[in-house]
Design goal:
about 375 residues; alpha/beta; Nucleotidyltransferase, domain 5; 2 domains; seven-stranded mixed beta sheet; five-stranded mixed beta sheet; about 40% helix; about 20% strand
């Protein structure tokens, strides 16, 4: 076995509510062990700033237009992450070799070959006195890929470590939903893509109605009634969007204006049905395209906790499919992505590929991440 490293992965998802932090020990190839999983909620001002900025940034020109606000928020986010690092290591006696710093995505536009994550890796290295790997997407973009999704190689490791029967599908429901199809243990055969909205539209509906940042357990949706007319029209409009032939989405690719006039519960039910039907349809389509007999789908990400959403995905899916969660295999589904970026940091450090032609669309398997040692 190669020498293993301790890596701290820091992940702030599209919801912009906080930072997931995981420390793993891994050789970057076929072994990993989780040492720490912790969640750190953003302060209200950081969370609100993220939400406001993302609402204003919809295209490349907006990056320049809001450059002052972006720089200010990037510093705040980096300082917050530095405090997270200190909290994670202060009561532990093991040494952190690397930090995998995902940052906060503010715009992802694969058509423009552009992806912007807020987070100053050099400053984080200086403050934490640790080696930092950041800006994971840039090299993949340069290699012709879309910069996302990047977690499939870690999903592959989970399947390998937990000896999960193949073929299998990992369905991550974060702000965006993405799947990884694993037919064998050859990492170059991984298939992955974003398949539609995850939590982002449901979260947006709750925020607009000032009912928090998400629909806990899908309770609001469960107590409402879906407006079938609005739902069917929205699904038809979604299907008629010109195929941009992309594998990855940004939250700005979706909107909820069609819910106008609905009350909280009925709107929550309608948007949850909309999300569930898209996920189920795209999931079935990708499984069919893979020519694999996949009967087991393993869920991870915050969306797996939305009982109403999961029920509606199941209702619209092939009834022969068995839905499980990574938790059923001893892997906390809240921290799969933070563990993934800890793992990606190690692979980047070892110059191993983190993306593949059938995951991001890159021309050849590509490593990625910018290395910073600023202390």
């Amino acid at each position: 076995m190669n020498k293993s490293l301790n890596s701290l992965g820091l992940m702030s998802g599209t919801s912009g509510d906080g930072v997931d932090a995981s420390i793993i020990n891994s050789d970057g190839k076929g072994y990993y062990k989780v040492l720490i999983n912790e969640y750190f909620e953003y302060t209200d001002d950081i969370s609100q700033n993220i939400y406001n900025l993302k609402s204003n940034i919809n295209k490349l020109e907006d990056i320049k237009k809001f450059s002052i606000e972006i720089n200010d928020l990037e510093r705040k986010i980096t300082l917050f992450h530095s405090n997270v690092v200190l909290e994670c290591i202060k009561n532990n006696d093991f040494v952190i070799d690397l930090i995998g710093f995902h940052g906060q995505t503010i715009l992802h536009s694969p058509i423009d070959k552009y992806s912007k994550q807020l987070g100053d890796g050099k400053l984080l290295s200086q403050l934490s006195k640790k080696k930092v790997i950041y800006n994971f997407r840039q090299n993949d973009l340069l290699e012709g890929g879309e910069g996302a999704p990047l977690s499939p190689i870690f999903h592959h490791l989970i399947v390998k470590e937990k000896k999960i029967d193949l073929p299998v599908c990992i369905l991550n429901i974060g702000g965006i939903s993405n799947l990884t199809l694993i037919k064998d243990l050859n990492e170059e055969n991984l298939i992955s893509k974003d398949i539609g909205p995850g939590n982002c539209l449901i979260d947006e509906w709750m925020r607009r109605n000032k009912k928090g940042n998400y629909d806990k357990n899908g309770e609001s949706a469960n107590s409402g009634k879906t407006d079938k007319l609005i739902l069917n029209q929205a699904l038809e409009d979604f299907e008629n969007i010109p195929d941009k032939n992309i594998n990855s989405f940004d939250v700005n690719d979706f909107e909820i204006n069609f819910l106008r006039g609905l009350d909280l519960e009925d709107g929550a039910s309608t948007i949850t049905d909309f999300t569930g039907k898209i996920i189920a349809s795209k999931l079935s389509r990708e499984i069919l395209k893979s020519n694999q007999k996949i009967s087991n789908v393993i869920l991870c990400g915050g969306g797996r906790k939305n009982k109403t959403l999961i029920e509606r995905i199941k209702l619209n899916s092939d009834q022969t499919i068995k839905f499980e969660t990574t938790d059923d295999y001893g892997v906390n589904g809240d921290f799969v992505e933070s563990q993934a970026f800890a793992y990606l940091a190690i692979r980047s450090f070892l110059k191993l590929p983190i993306s593949f032609p059938n995951t991001t669309g890159c021309k050849v398997p590509a490593t990625g991440g910018v290395y910073a040692k600023n202390f």
